[in-house]
């Protein structure tokens, strides 16, 4: 895994948890 994929993965997880909190 390189730098960009790691950041993209972190953003994806953050968006998932955030949408869970708002639901």
Q: Could you describe the 3D structure shown?
A:
It contains one helix and no strands. With 23 residues, the protein is an all-alpha fold. It starts with a helix and ends with a helix. It has one helix at residues 3-22. The radius of gyration is 10 Å and the shape is rod-shaped. 87% of the residues lie in helices and 0% in strands.
Chart the SSEs and their pairings:
Blueprint: H1 3-22
Short description:
The protein has 23 residues and is mostly helical.
Radius of gyration: 10 Å
Segments where pLDDT lies below 50 for 5+ residues? none
Shape annotation: rod-shaped
Averaged pLDDT: 87
The fraction of residues in strands falls at under 5%
SS element count, helices: 1
C-alpha termini separation: 31 Å
Taking the sheet with the most strands, its summary is:
none
Work out the number of β strands.
0
Helix content: over 70%
The structure class reads mainly alpha
Order of helices and strands: H
Any key phrases for this structure?
23 residues; mainly alpha
């Amino acid at each position: 895994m390189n730098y960009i994929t790691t950041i993209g993965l972190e953003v994806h997880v953050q968006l998932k948890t955030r949408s869970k909190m708002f639901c």
